[in-house]
Amino acid sequence: xxxxxxxxxxxxxxxxxxxxxxxxxxxxxxxxxxxxxxxxxxxxxxxxxxxxxxxxxxxxxxxxxxxxxxxxxxxxxxxxxxxxxxxxxxxxxxxxxxxxxxxxxxxxxxxxxxxxxxxxxxxxxxxxxxxxxxxxxxxxxxxxxxxxxxxxxxxxxxxxxxxxxxxxxxxxxxxxxxxxxxxxxxxxxxxxxxxxxxxxxxxxxxxxxxxxxxxxxxxxxxxxxxxxxxxxxxxxxxxxxxxxxxxxxxxxxxxxxxxxxxxxxxxxxxxxxxxxxxxxxxxxxxxxxxxxxxxxxxxxxxxxxxxxxxxxxxxxxxxxxxxxxxxxxxxxxxxxxxxxxxxxxxxxxxxxxxxxxxxxxxxxxxxxxxxxxxxxxxxxxxxxxxxxxxxxxxxxxxxxxxxxxxxxxxxxxxxxxxxxxxxxxxxxxxxxxxxxxxxxxxxxxxxxxxxxxxxxxxxxxxxxxxxxxxxxxxxxxxxxxxxxxxxxxxxxxxxxxxxxxxxxxxxxxxxxxxxxxxxxxxxxxxxxxxxxxxxxxxxxxxxxxxxxxxxxxxxxxxxxxxxxxxxxxxxxxxxxxxxxxxxxxxxxxxxxxxxxxxx
Length: 599
Fold this sequence. Notes:
Number of strands: 23
Structural class: alpha+beta
Shape: globular
Number of helices: 19
Radius of gyration: 23 Å
CATH architecture of the domain at 36-75 and 315-455: Alpha/alpha barrel
CATH topology of the domain at 36-75 and 315-455: Glycosyltransferase
Distance between the termini: 15 Å
Helix content: 40-55%
């Protein structure tokens, strides 16, 4: 229980952000954006959703995805009405009871996974499994206002069946799953043993929720083992690479970054902690985030470096990085989030969209990465930053995004990929995540501005958004949120220490503000002669956590190193050092008798 005490800063911020998000609404929302115009933008985004959703249902359903230019359809993942599944909780969020109920009923009666299809474990988990679970939790609960009277857990049963068909992918020496699995026959003998860090480390929310709902721990266990398998193979800089061999545990691509192939690994560490209350996720996130801010952050941009040496290998902004400011809001690190979002949005302003790659050395679109496939990440961060700061500039940003999509991406039956952001050339494809995330975050942004009336802001629970934008509620059945403690400084050894905390420069009444951050100073007293700092300034929610044990020391999970590296590490750890990052303090070098047993 003591280890949970440091969790309050992050948890409190998350709860306050959700609970008081609709308390203060600016009268003058943005330059040229009045409350009435914000309402019009919200309604315009709603129309965008239905233009694309109706186009899919009329021209592509039950195929996976829509061809919005030619008004056709295609099977892109498994051939099981992917876009409909991915859209379910957006229908519920918009309050469309009839379409939501009809879609749930059709899926319950017609969907099956006993098919000879080889599918991506990652994409199937975040899009299909997450979509089924989110819709189940809405359809089965009177408190959501969207309960379907005739619903009898059909989506939950489908989710469990699907997850069991994905389980063979986790049967590897490292615990890190294969990238693909056949839903009928398991893993093919010729399946590649190389997978991405995001592919192996972005499964915990969906599988964890399924375990809590079915009371079968196997789903949560295998995904936690996958996270441990990846983290155990981090470099001594606490960085992870992009691709790894799931059998040997050797990194096949050692580029470390926050974008392509790694992005949601970081995201699910923090979100799994917020949803499940398991402090092991927080420990890993603290160390991983500290390393990212120390080695990858080149204010306000992020670069890719070699995971062992930290040498810059790729000075590139890629569009998947755009989720990061939103994650920083959840972590309470607001200032760098604001600066980075400004930089990322400047790319959008320059081209009307964010290209898949923007070279920071040449300040031009990266060759071969000129497209914009309707990605939601910048909208997601815009929503979170507006929710945290209520700065009207984020409404301006949202308005620009809507204009770009409407003017350049709108097609006869939906919205098209942009194959070249400089010439706004359209491509006949629409990913399901456009309906699951892109328009969802834009709609939430403007609904929040005019006075929110939706499940997320006014519903019975606090929601965690999955990496696919699916709504996962912190219900008592799912979340251990009630076990979090109520003061700072938990992770220190408390034998002869007295922990004392106070905050200054904090809003006089935190229940009456929604500026998105808690600023103050946490003071923790240590025994005389301690090498720990006497006080740690904080700006957000992770700062101020008492340094204490590292993740490896608490859980016995150290990185896997060669014998030479292990000897060097052992020698270095004899001298305690304090390594300060942008927002966390990581202190290696506790004594062996302080190291808890691996559980």
